[in-house]
Design a protein that fits this description.
Blueprint (H helix, E strand, L loop, with lengths): L4 E13 L5 E14 L11 H4 L1 H22 L4 H23 L10 H24 L5 H9 L1 H11 L1
Antiparallel strand pairs: 1-2
């Protein structure tokens, strides 16, 4: 037996019968049971901070998004015109994150299928963003925010189709 784990094999006979209760076949079914040694210390799960980091990022981005939209509405700034600065700042932050924090290669050779799906993703994201800023002129902020956050559901539906 191994220090880490031990394996116990149990064999059971399985009898298969037809509709008239006559024996068709007789075979052995091997069931494997593994026992783990409990002498090692239990590995701790990630801390709560790391475990819920994604949820924290979502809440933070939602707060920043709604706050900036509210400020733009109160200052009577045309959000469609301000979207150029928004896209520029977003692109700079994304580039810094990709290149210097995650160290992604920006010139990775990708397959044609990956490039195609990337362009589809960019097209729908950009179209959704500009449609949001265009609709901002005609809808109230609560209605617009509700519509914007249903984008997650549409993304899931389109992803399941593709």
């Amino acid at each position: 037996m191994d220090k880490e784990s031990s394996t116990i094999e149990n064999q059971f006979e399985i009898e298969v019968k037809d509709d008239h209760n006559k024996q068709q076949s007789l075979s052995l079914l091997t069931e494997t049971t593994t026992a783990v040694n409990d002498d090692k210390p239990v590995q701790l799960s990630p801390t709560k901070w790391k475990r819920f980091l994604g949820i924290f990022y979502i809440l933070l981005s939602t707060f920043i998004f709604v706050t900036s939209t509210f400020i733009a509405k109160e200052l009577n700034v045309d959000v469609l015109d301000a979207s150029i600065a928004y896209c520029l700042v977003h692109s700079i932050i994304l580039f810094i994150y990709m290149k210097f924090i995650k160290h992604y290669s920006l010139y990775k050779q990708a397959s044609k299928q990956e490039i195609f799906f990337l362009f589809i993703n960019v097209f729908f994201s950009a179209t959704g963003g500009f449609a949001f800023f265009f609709a901002y002129r005609y809808l109230t902020l609560p209605d617009l925010t509700t519509i914007r956050f249903t984008q997650i559901i549409w993304t899931a539906i389109i992803t399941s189709i593709l």
